[in-house]
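Worked example

This section walks through a single chain of length 168. The input is the sequence exactly as stored; nothing has been trimmed or padded.
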Amino acid sequence: MTKDLNEFLKDFKSVNISTLDEKGNPFSSYAPFIKIEDKYYVYISDMAKHTSNLKRKDICSLFFAEDESTCSNIFARKRAMVQCNVKKIEQDSQNEESKLSAFKVKFGDKMIDMLKGMQDFHVFEFTPFYGEAVFGFGKAYNLGGDDFSQFVNRPSTNNSSGHGHGSK
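Given that input, the structure is written out below as tokens.
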């Protein structure tokens, strides 16, 4: 069993991002990400629809799912969802530079320098306020702890309607 969310995410390079568009319709996309302490960061272009969605509505959902080509059961893929408040980091600030340094460590100097040269890329910061993780049938957890990375057992109920798979 994975001990915490950080262990589960250690080999992930990208995250699925769910936002709301200008009409309130759901929109899903993905972006490469980094995680520093309790926050997630993406570096995305103004050309991407999720960028305008994040600028307009400062909440989103991040979704991480086990690679389906290597999972043992497609119906029980390990996965985690984190709901977040979103903040755009000011361009050319010290805060942005520190995050871009972390992106360079994970993805390489050449790529990040090229994206920075385009001038329309922005770092967004995601601060979790709720999360869930599922690691198989009957193995559903809430995320807790100071950094929302600890698995917290859900209270058992006789009429569970979630992934705890209680009796009906």
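What to look for: DSSP finds four helices and eight strands in the chain.
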